[in-house]
Design brief:
Blueprint (H helix, E strand, L loop, with lengths): L1 E4 L6 E5 L12 H7 L19 E7 L11 E7 L1
Parallel strand pairs: 1-4
Antiparallel strand pairs: 1-2, 3-4
Length: 80
Amino acid sequence: MIKYACRSCGFELFRFEKVGQDFYGVRTPTEVMGMYSNKCPRCGNRLKTPSNTEIILSLRRAKDSLKSSVPTLRTQITVT
């Protein structure tokens, strides 16, 4: 999952759950900012492209839908 959020108030601007979610795929930070005219709809803060230190990576275990003996990991990127 990839999640873009406002660094000031934490409002979720965009979430990409899985491949095939929509026609466009994963949006870049610039595309997400353009969707909101570079302003957070909740707090009005100016949105900025994140630096490398502001990108948070975390792993989480996927649900065992096929009951596989091999664990599956997905990457979650939160841009704040």
